[in-house]
Amino acid sequence: MNTQTLPRLAITAGEPAGIGPELIIRLAATPLAANFVAVTDRALLERAAQRCGQAVELIDDDGGDITERTPGQLRVQHIPLGATETPGRPDPANAKHVLATLAEAADGCLEGRYAAIVTAPLQKSSINEAGIPFSGHTEFFAERARADVVMMLASPELRVSLATTHLPLAAVPAAITHDTLVRVLRIAHRELRGKFGLVEPRIAVLGLNPHAGEGGHLGREELDTIIPTLDALRAEGMHLLGPLPADTAFVPALRERYDAVLAMYHDQALPVLKSEAFDRTVNLTLGLPFIRTSVDHGTALDLAGTGRGDPASLIAATRMALELVARRSAIAQGHS
Ligand SMILES: NC(=O)C1=CN([C@@H]2O[C@H](COP(=O)(O)OP(=O)(O)OC[C@H]3O[C@@H](n4cnc5c(N)ncnc54)[C@H](O)[C@@H]3O)[C@@H](O)[C@H]2O)C=CC1
Ligand SMILES: NCC(=O)COP(=O)(O)O
């Protein structure tokens, strides 16, 4: 008989009108060895289960540990909705509910009540339409934990960190500074060692401009900022390639030469991951004092309510959270 307690994972449902609640029902049906605690509205989960045609046993979370979970069982930390959801139609009346679920999950991790957070997608625009400035989970958790963070998306074949995250494209060049690159590369380097066990991580840094600036003929950010910063960090012992032209950095021959990529902005590298591994990619936040993983996709409003959303990325995010929890425990016990 298994007597080890299962890791308590806080699973947030994200946008109530998106596919998140249905994906959580699908996740609960898997035999994954974890104590899933859905941080959301109980009745929302009941309706999501009906839409999926999937049986689920919802159990009010008492904060305790368990050693076994039957597939289909799901503990719930009830956070009430502001308004009953209409699938596919986000309602800003639920913005405060969504943020309350994130706050409970983050505070629960900081207080040791959860081992990690796995997030389903939220609708950023709906939170903004409620009059609450919000750009994403990454920035929310960074502020809540007062941490310096970096967004990484990882598939089994490719890991990509971002120097800038949810920023209008026009604001990107000014954000690519020496200080930003040093901060982001130090966090990525430290976390590739700590979270992924890479002793000497090799990071390929993309240029900002076409052909990495073509020697200054297609933009000067590489010459003025990126190259001098990489040289300074190399002098500290970091193994950095680049700046590489983004259009060729992902070809197979180059991929063998690095363990991770640093892209300058969101849409420079995420289309590569999403087009080759949409169902296997996980979004994780580096630099937090707790483990947070997420799906790579959005709220899929066109599929919400149909029960047809693919839970693969949520399952991959959950598996990664469990691996990171196990690795953290092994390190804490002195076996790295
Ligand atoms: N982690 C998060 O909270 C994320 C939130 N978003 C937010 O989601 C919202 C919608 O974003 P979009 O750009 O429309 O991207 P999206 O990922 O929601 O949808 C793009 C396309 O992929 C399909 N799709 C997405 N997930 C799927 C799944 N699990 N199974 C099957 N098909 C799936 C959708 O049906 C749609 O055709 C935006 O507000 C965005 O900010 C986007 C990415 C991540
Ligand atoms: N493309 C990633 C994304 O938009 C999700 O960001 P976050 O909500 O995890 O910060």
From TrEMBL:
Keyword Magnesium: yes or no?
A: yes
Instruction: State its Enzyme Commission number(s).
Output: 1.1.1.262
**Binding sites annotated in the UniProt record for a divalent metal cation:** H166, H211, H266
Q: Which reaction does it catalyse?
A: 4-(phosphooxy)-L-threonine + NAD(+) = 3-amino-2-oxopropyl phosphate + CO2 + NADH
The main enzyme category here is oxidoreductase
Compartment annotation: Cytoplasm
Q: In which pathway does it act?
A: Cofactor biosynthesis; pyridoxine 5'-phosphate biosynthesis; pyridoxine 5'-phosphate from D-erythrose 4-phosphate: step 4/5
* Alphabetized Gene3D superfamilies for the sequence: Isopropylmalate Dehydrogenase
What does the record say about how the cofactor binds? Binds 1 divalent metal cation per subunit. Can use ions such as Zn(2+), Mg(2+) or Co(2+).
Write one Gene Ontology MF term. 4-hydroxythreonine-4-phosphate dehydrogenase activity
Predominant subcellular localization, coarse grouping: cytoplasm
Q: Which domain of life is it from?
A: Bacteria
Task: Indicate the quaternary assembly.
Answer: Homodimer.
- PANTHER family associated with the record: 4-HYDROXYTHREONINE-4-PHOSPHATE DEHYDROGENASE (PTHR30004)
Tell me the protein family, please.
Answer: Belongs to the PdxA family.
Q: What is this protein called?
A: 4-hydroxythreonine-4-phosphate dehydrogenase
Task: Please tell me the species this chain comes from.
Answer: Dyella japonica
Q: What lineage is this protein's organism placed in?
A: Bacteria, Pseudomonadati, Pseudomonadota, Gammaproteobacteria, Lysobacterales
